[in-house]
Amino acid sequence: MFAQFALHERLLKAVAELNFVEPTPVQAAAIPPALEGKDLRVIAQTGSGKTAAFVLPLLNRLLGDGNSQQRVSIRALILLPTRELAQQTLKEVERFAQFTFLKAGLVTGGEDFKVQAAMMRKIDILIGTPGRLIEHANAGNLPLNEVEVLVFDEADRMLDMGFAEDAQRLAEACGPHQTLLFSATTGGNGLREMVAKVLKAPQHLMLNSVSQLNEGTRQQIITADHNHHKEQLVDWLLANETYDKAIVFTNTRVQADRLYGKLVAAGVKAFVLHGEKDQKDRKLAIERLRQGAVKVLVATDVAARGLDVDGLDLVINFDMPRSGDEYVHRIGRTGRAGGEGLAISLICHGDWNLMSSIERYLKQRFERRTVKELKGSYQGPKNLKASGKAAGSKKKKTDKDAKKAAPKRKSGPRPAGKPSALVSEDGLAPLKRKKPAAE
Ligand code: AMP
């Protein structure tokens, strides 16, 4: 029950109006310490109810004793990596603040600069993306000295998109404040550094992402001989599966563009999204997908972050995601709101052990499936270890071993065809490897 939290009655009224009855696990864990004013570092997925977990304590703090403020100033700042996420968060804030005097506003790229500057003088809660906010800060339009609560949502993705410096500069511009930092994954060194810089003695809350995989989503693998074979499989699946909307994930922009080109040439109505596409492309892709004019989106992880499109019921992993968390993130988009979903991963020889380590991480075994018409020669390793990995695959090298084994190389581009020193023979190392920026 939400009444268990010491929330202002106007907020409890909004919660009741929205028919929220039971707090979700992330809300139960985060709301009490956030209400006490503690800094929090929370790992939780989209769909877990994390937005309410920071919005409710934030509004509660701004409401104080409930007396109307004499003068409006920005007292809370919510940073998100993308414009769509910022828009969704604004809607949530407005729903929870409907019985209060608090006003929120959005500042993201693509809108009129002067209009935004004027709007910022009339709001209590500012929601935005770091890039555009820094432009305002540089122009002297961004008074953050009265900010009491700062939220970073999807902080891992913010860093992947190259916003680390901007986000930290914005944090430094705030007055004395409480900081709440949310991310979907544990992130890498960049996130650890950021946590150390922006949070003071934080409480760490890890909400188990794995348990949040939708049980209504079937998970399958299909083995493939090479990328061309994978392309044929994608074509076949899109033509033969029953689905409302599909998303095909690749790990690189180049592969996303290539696959998109092939699909369009084959007459599939598709869109492609990756880090090099601008906001206009993003908005158009999402609108078309929402309207149903386009049924297929080819995307890299960064580009697809935060997409919330109804009816997305087929996910194809052209490339296996690089970590278990990323897998959960991709698959978490299907079968939302109790609907059925299907997730299919295409697995070449080099993907097997990564796939198997993700199975172990999830404590699940993916269904093995073959497409008769496109059966290739690779059917998985001939012999498996107890772990599910290919027998005969070499022991995972440590970074130290790899360094020893790797020939000394002067700086400059890595020679083509040579694996990075961190890629171990069994393919597990990419789990830990840093992702390329802003795919
Ligand atoms: P989020 O993870 O914040 O994107 O939330 C996912 C969806 O769950 C949103 O549509 C919320 O409005 C909804 N939601 C969040 N918390 C609750 C709750 N306690 N009860 C019912 N729905 C909720």
Label the CATH architecture of the largest domain.
3-Layer(aba) Sandwich
Assembly state of the chains shown: single chain
The largest β sheet comes out as: 7 strands, parallel
From the alpha-carbon coordinates, what is the Rg to the nearest angstrom?
A: 23 Å
Q: Order of strands across the biggest sheet?
A: 3-4-2-5-6-1-7
Please give the count of helices. Answer: 16
Q: Percentage of helical residues?
A: 25-40%
Tally the beta strands.
14
Q: Per the principal axes of the C-alpha atoms, what is the gross shape?
A: globular
Q: What is the percentage of strand-forming residues?
A: 5-15%
Head-to-tail CA distance between termini: 41 Å
**Are any ligands bound, and if so which?**
adenosine monophosphate
The number of domains = 2
Taking pLDDT < 50 over at least 5 consecutive residues as the criterion, the unreliable ranges are 397-439
Classified in CATH, the superfamily of the largest domain is P-loop containing nucleotide triphosphate hydrolases
Q: What fold name stands as the CATH topology of the largest domain?
A: Rossmann fold
Report on the structure:
The protein is an alpha/beta fold. The chain folds into 2 domains: 2-208, Rossmann fold (3-Layer(aba) Sandwich), CATH 3.40.50; 212-374, Rossmann fold, CATH 3.40.50.300. The chain has 16 helices and 14 strands. It has helices at 9-17, 25-35, 50-63, 83-96, 113-119, 130-138, 155-160, 164-173, 189-198, 227-240, 253-265, 279-291, 301-304, 324-331, 352-362, 399-405, and strands at residues 40-43, 76-79, 104-107, 125-128, 149-152, 178-183, 203-206, 217-223, 245-249, 270-273, 296-299, 312-317, 341-347, 367-368. The chain has a 7-stranded parallel beta sheet, sandwiched between helices. A 7-stranded parallel beta sheet has the order 10-11-9-12-13-8-14, sandwiched between helices. Helix 5 (113-119) links the parallel strand 3 (104-107) and strand 4 (125-128). Helix 2 packs parallel to helix 3 (50-63), helix 3 crosses helix 4 (83-96) and helix 8 packs parallel to helix 9. It is globular, with a radius of gyration of 23 Å. The relative contact order is 0.11. Bound molecules: adenosine monophosphate.
